[in-house]
Design brief:
Carb_kinase_FGGY, transferase, alpha/beta, Nucleotidyltransferase, domain 5, 500 residues, 40% helix
């Protein structure tokens, strides 16, 4: 049997997962790390923390699986998108990585729009200037930390820094690179026009490949530290959303993925680049050769529930411990005890600004419609409903872009909640097929690695063999009618409150 390794360098931790060629999970390991917020709206991480988590995870998986390292034929890399990693000529990290949810770069986005124009930016990169993307972060460093900027030898994305540590090679691939806002997504290569107009040296960018291409091989030093075989192939991999889509079988038009992780994403594969003129959803290169994808993003999905848990659930955390119940399962039970509509409470999930549909880094979240009758369960349920409304905003825009919707699949930590799955089906008014994708991005990049080393003929062929849909959640007609009314109120809140 041949095996494939997937690494997913996430925001809260790194998952390392080993699969056999049939897609069965053999062994996994998880290592967490910290997120730093030096100021409100800022978010940073130390790339060395990611590397330490990868080293430990690989070592654990290789050792505990008892699989012969020679039988691990390829490694795929996934990770949080848009993070800026700066490396100097001695290959040392210059400063902490400014990561995807950081919102400090509004001024730089205005500058990009002035220099290139919103239409030109969308035409080249698929998106307007966005605070979350890598380019605006790079310009912020240039404006505010000139010494650090002048010391840059290469800029890398989080997973591509791990690639460098594994192989000694500076490389990236089209799906993650198109989230940097420096790639021409039409030609699937760096945009000379954009780089020249913004006075950015192309030499600081890594070589860009298709996601299934072998970009390097494990070094002798890493092999000694991890138990891997030196020379094991490392493929391009993918940004976490494209990787998760491959891991859920979202590789052809008509199949829609909804992922409820820290952020929430509605993702659709397309055969040609599709653009929203207002730039409310992202158009990026897919990890599947010659395909693209559109993606709407809710910044604060699972993040909203995590924030609420940490700040308002001390009693519930203690009760869950006493009953030996996972705290999120316990909060789901609380939400189930509240009626659809949360007894009038509507939640706006704008804890870190918002991307879709508002593209507003400054908007704040809130609970609206609170009265004396409301209890703790109403607030929990309103979070699940508010995030679902925000995801519905994403779905509506994608549908208006003439993207066919034949099959909606749901995955991610939030989707493990039966209550949240039902709310989402009712709000979407679509049947949802659950995908067991706890290893989603890691499985996705393991599949890409399998294509790269010749185990599978194509990404589509691999997904056909490996990915199986599970339970079907049908919408409840009564709830759908109620949520339609509440959705209209939800959509009226942003224009009323955005200036507060």
């Amino acid at each position: 049997m041949r095996y494939l390794l997937g690494l997913d360098i996430g925001t809260s931790g790194t998952k390392t997962a080993l699969f056999d060629e049939l897609g069965n999970t053999i062994e996994t390991a998880n290592y967490g790390y910290d997120l730093f917020q030096p100021k409100a709206g800022w978010a940073e991480q130390n790339p060395e923390d990611w590397w330490e988590a990868c080293l430990n995870g690989i070592k654990d998986v290789v050792k505990n699986s008892k699989v012969n390292a020679k039988d691990i034929k390829g490694i795929g890399l996934s990770g949080q998108m848009h993070g800026l990693v700066l490396v100097d000529k001695d290959y040392n990290v210059i400063r902490n990585s400014i990561i995807w949810c950081d919102q400090r770069t509004e001024k730089q986005c205005q500058y990009m729009t002035e220099v290139l124009g919103k239409e030109k930016l969308i035409e080249i990169t698929g998106n307007p200037a966005l605070t979350g993307f890598t380019l605006s972060k790079l310009l912020w460093v240039r404006d505010n930390e000139p010494e650090n900027y002048n010391n840059i030898y290469k800029i890398l994305l989080p997973k591509d820094y791990i690639r460098f540590k594994l192989t000694g090679i500076f490389a990236t691939e089209v799906s993650d690179a198109s989230g940097m806002q420096m790639l021409d997504i039409n030609t699937r290569n760096w945009s000379d026009e954009l780089l020249q107009k913004l006075d950015i040296d192309k030499n600081i960018l890594a070589d860009v490949y298709e996601s299934v291409v072998v970009s390097g091989h494990v070094t002798e030093e890493v092999a000694r530290k991890t138990g891997l075989e030196a020379g094991t192939a490392v493929v391009g991999g993918a940004g976490d959303q494209a990787a998760g889509a491959v891991g859920s079988g979202i590789v052809s038009e008509g199949i829609i993925s909804t992922v409820i992780g820290s952020s929430g994403v509605v993702f659709a594969s397309t055969d040609t680049p599709r653009f929203d003129k207002e730039g409310r959803v992202h158009t990026l290169c897919h990890a599947v050769p010659n395909k693209w994808h559109v993606m709407g993003v809710t910044q604060g999905a699972g993040l909203s529930l995590k924030w609420f848990k940490e700040n308002f659930c001390r009693k519930e955390i203690d009760e869950a411990k006493e009953k030996n119940i996972n705290i999120y399962d316990y909060l789901s039970e609380k939400a189930a005890g509240s009626k659809p509509g949360s007894n009038g409470v509507i939640y706006m999930p704008y804890l870190m600004g918002e991307r879709t549909p508002h593209i507003d880094p400054n908007v704040k979240g809130g609970f609206v419609g609170v009265s004396l009758i409301n209890n703790h369960g109403d607030f929990v349920r309103s979070i699940l409903e508010g995030v679902s409304f925000s995801l519905k905003n994403c779905l509506d825009i994608i549908e208006n872009m003439k993207v066919e919707i034949t099959d909606v699949r749901v995955s991610g930590g939030g989707a493990e909640s039966e209550v949240w799955r039902q709310i989402l089906a009712d709000v979407f008014n679509h049947p949802l097929r659950t995908i067991k994708a706890s290893e989603g991005p890691a499985l996705g990049v393991a599949i890409l690695a399998g294509v790269g080393v010749g185990i599978y003929n194509s990404v589509e062929d691999a997904c056909e063999k490996i990915i199986k849909g599970q339970d079907l959640v049908n919408p409840n007609c009564d709830n759908t009618a109620l949520y339609d009314k509440i959705y209209k109120v939800y959509n009226s809140l942003y224009p009323r409150l955005k200036d507060i």
